[in-house]
Amino acid sequence: MIDIALPRDVEESVHGLERVYLYRLADLQAIVARNLEGRAGEVERAKTLARDKAEEFCAWEGSLEGDCEMSFKHSCRPVLVSRGAEEALG
Prior knowledge:
By secondary structure, the protein is α+β, with helices and mostly antiparallel strands. The chain has one domain (2-65). Helix content is 51%, strand content 13%. The strands form 2 sheets. It has a two-stranded parallel ribbon.
């Protein structure tokens, strides 16, 4: 049961019943605070992962031989094309 009313509508004694859980506003606020804290850590992990993968991609792109670039113009998938061919295709 969730009782967010002030004053409370649900008797505290219901918490003692089998398989009945009583949550008050303060309980919910604590749960939200823990979830937000956990999410903040995940945001930092995601930023680090994105930065690492971007650096990895840039290193890979820099290792390509010839005058190539990524083109997303004509496909959902990246396709390597020479700059001259891309200019000819417009």
